[in-house]
Write a structure and sequence with these properties.
The complex is a heterodimer of chains A (295) and B (355).
Chain A lengths: L13 H22 L1 E3 L5 E3 L3 H6 L5 H34 L7 H9 L6 H11 L6 H8 L10 H29 L3 H9 L4 H29 L3 H6 L11 H11 L3 H34 L1
Antiparallel strand pairs in A: 1-2
Chain B lengths: L3 E8 L9 E8 L4 E5 L6 H9 L6 E6 L2 E2 L10 E4 L11 H11 L4 H14 L15 H13 L6 E5 L7 H18 L2 E6 L2 H7 L2 E6 L2 E6 L1 H6 L4 H6 L6 E14 L2 E9 L6 E6 L4 E4 L4 E10 L4 E7 L2 E7 L8 E7 L5 E4 L2 E3 L5
Parallel strand pairs in B: 3-8, 3-9, 6-7, 7-8
Antiparallel strand pairs in B: 1-2, 1-4, 4-5, 9-10, 11-12, 11-13, 13-19, 14-18, 15-16, 15-18, 16-17, 19-20
Helix pairs in contact in B: 2-3, 2-4
Classes of the chains: A mainly alpha (295), B alpha+beta (355).
Chain lengths: 295, 355
């Protein structure tokens, strides 16, 4: 077949190219540009090579220590919230009725926290957790607990975790519930005929069938918790001290608080790379699961 | 090992005006194979689920060996069930799948191993025991779900809910003969739900034909063929089904669109004479002359036999063309075997006085 060759057709791609250039490439390259330069102010920049990156990845430097602390804090926050949200979400989904008119209203009520904007959540909890006028804070203080978000690191941490659990467990519930509903009745009937206990049914039927849904749920929740910003920003401001200074809080402090554009750019890039790597790992796991299933 | 008695069982689903299952009495004998045959939505799966205890009936009692189990849950009834599509435990091997019902009943480990080996042998699964159940073919998976029912030695009945639906047609025959072999080897009560008459007639000792929640006839495959007690049984079973024609019956003669058909029996009690007469194509033959005059529409050569599609007034009927007879077309004569000619009133068989 004779294909007409016409290189002018490339112009058709130009709009997309320009769009991608301005939406992704140029901003990204600006960050890359900052990450290899240093400045003494007055918009005077000079070449700094990979020095920012070397500092960043070396925990004995000031910025390196800050970064590794924030990363560690962030990872443990993700782990703690996932460890609570996933089992809790599955448990709630298992308790929901399988049919009937109550399902709709129940799901809406459960999904409500997800519909509230982050800033509103932060503000709500900021007031809610105050020991003087907040119901939550006052109640805990009334019970004789030493609860103070602005002074006690454990209080601050627990509050952020509770907020995230309250805000995002519904996502796990909804995904799990959808996964559970997709299991045909015959599996439950077979389990009853085989005299399987509730636990055996869960382990041998429900959990394997939920595998894919749960991988997606965990990926989503991991990414969201790994990028958490608004809640600690509004409720604790990253404190007390730096107890709740997660990566994105720290990044904003470096970039906007101290206007250290070079280190901030380096942090951004490394942060981004970590996120990409974790996504890639999850993606690989998911495709592996698929391949095993259809092997 | 049990005999199952249904005592006035009836069922209607909540918020449904119609009865899914009309009142029914039936005894399922130990060691026999039954088929529940009927079109989709006729209540056969409902009946099966009542026996297995997945549904509790709105009325009536279910007795296992005389013991009332109507209110007992599935797990205490000792039945086994195979579903439309294979239900296997993905994470387990074939062996673990087979052992699962026994493990849940706290059987001793060595006894479990022996029994699993025995059943695997019976189902030709011995080589697959260490394999992941997930990796098997659909047919083998269905055998595993069958095996999970069979491992329990004390199982009262084996229930099948259209178990061959998802099986490749070429392998259906194979799995069905396996089922028959299992039935012979284990002397179990088996109840098999299907909408496929070939499956029902080849599998069962006795077939229960159902429609719209009603049991129309319970009989052996041969009886269903030779003496259908309901017009639906007549045309649902057989290919093509029974010829049915509206007729005016007066005593021993049926009038069908100007023709008189001798019934070979007297039917004095039919109100107004309104009835339907029915006969299977296999018991009617066509000849060039004599008999009831009919219009030949078409002759189909089926290899083993020839089948004529003929018209008698507004009725289209099928009849056999005997070997050696050649029918040109146009007019021909129809002869019906009188002992295979039945009269139905309101779709039910009416017995005449044969003397």
């Amino acid at each position: 077949m004779d294909k007409p060759l016409n290189n002018r057709a490339w112009f058709m791609v130009a709009p997309v190219f320009v769009l991608v250039l301005f939406s992704a490439l140029l901003p990204m390259m600006t960050v890359v540009n900052y990450s290899v330069q240093d400045s003494l102010g007055q918009n005077q920049f000079f070449w700094n090579g990979d020095a920012w990156f070397r500092d960043l990845l070396n925990p004995s430097t000031e910025i390196g220590a800050r970064f590794s602390d924030a990363l560690l804090r962030n990872l443990s926050f993700s782990l703690v919230t996932l460890a609570i949200e996933v089992p809790l979400g599955i448990a709630v989904a298992l308790c929901l009725p399988r049919g009937g008119w109550t399902v709709g209203p129940l799901l809406v009520i459960i999904a409500l926290p997800m519909l509230i904007p982050w800033n509103v959540i932060g503000t709500m909890w900021q007031i809610f957790s105050r020991a003087d006028i907040g119901l939550f804070g006052a109640a805990l203080t009334g019970l004789g607990l030493h609860y103070n978000v602005t002074q006690n690191a454990i209080s601050a941490w627990c509050t952020i975790v509770v907020i995230d659990v309250w805000h995002w467990t519904p996502l796990i519930v909804l995904l799990t519930y959808a996964g559970l509903r997709a299991i045909p009745d015959a599996y439950y009937q077979a389990a009853r005929i085989d005299a399987a206990s509730r636990w055996a049914t869960f382990v041998n039927i429900e959990l394997p069938k939920l595998q894919k849904v749960l991988v997606i749920a965990i990926l989503l929740r991991f990414m969201q918790t790994f990028m958490i910003y608004t809640e600690p920003f509004v409720v604790t401001g990253g404190g007390p001290g730096s107890a709740t200074t997660f990566l994105s809080i720290d990044l904003v402090k470096i970039a906007l608080g101290q206007v250290d554009l070079g280190p901030a750019a380096a942090v951004s890039l490394v942060y981004n790379l970590i996120t990409l790597t974790i996504c890639w790992i999850f993606f690989t796991i998911m495709t592996q699961l698929d391949r095993r299933r259809y092997a | 090992m049990a005999r199952i008695t249904l005592d006035g069982i009836a069922h209607s689903y909540p918020r449904s005006a119609t009865m899914a299952l009309q009142p029914l009495n039936h005894v399922w004998e130990q060691g026999r194979a039954y088929a529940l045959l009927g079109p989709s939505g006729c209540g056969k799966t409902t009946l099966l689920n009542i026996i297995s205890g997945l549904i509790s009936p709105s009325q009536g009692r279910v007795l296992f060996d005389g013991k009332d189990v109507t209110l007992l849950p599935t797990e205490q009834r000792n039945i086994a069930q195979v579903f439309q599509f294979p239900v296997i435990y993905d994470t387990m091997t074939v062996g673990e799948n087979l052992a699962f019902p026994l493990k849940n009943r706290r059987m001793e480990r060595s006894a479990i191993r022996a029994r699993v080996a025995e059943i695997a042998e019976l189902l030709d699964l011995t080589g697959d025991l260490p394999r992941r159940a997930r990796a098997l073919t659909v047919e083998a998976k269905q055998k595993v779900s069958l095996g999970r029912g069979l491992v329990r030695a004390d199982v009262a009945a084996m229930l099948f809910d259209e178990p061959l639906t998802v099986i490749d047609p070429a392998l259906k025959w194979h799995l069905r003969s396996k089922l028959k072999a299992v039935h012979r080897a284990l002397d179990l009560l088996m109840i098999y739900v299907t909408h496929d008459q070939v499956e029902a007639l080849t599998f069962a000792d006795e077939v229960v034909v159902m429609k719209d929640g009603r049991v129309l006839q319970v009989a052996s495959p041969a009886q269903l063929f030779e003496r259908p007690e309901h017009t639906f049984v007549g045309y649902f079973i057989g290919s093509p089904g029974m010829n049915l024609m509206a007729a005016k019956v007066s005593d021993h003669v049926a009038h069908v669109s100007g023709q008189d058909i001798e019934l070979g029996a007297r039917y004095p009690k039919i109100k107004n004479g309104d009835a339907v007469i029915g006969f299977r194509p296999d018991f009617a033959s066509l000849s060039p002359e004599g008999g009831i005059p009919v219009q030949v529409r078409r002759i189909e050569d089926l290899g083993r036999r020839r089948l004529a599609r003929v018209a008698l007034g507004p009725h289209e009927i099928f009849a056999n063309v005997p070997e050696g007879v050649s029918i040109g077309g146009g007019q021909a004569g129809l002869t019906i075997q009188q002992d295979r000619l039945f009269v139905y009133v309101d779709d039910e068989l009416v017995l005449g006085d044969r003397r």
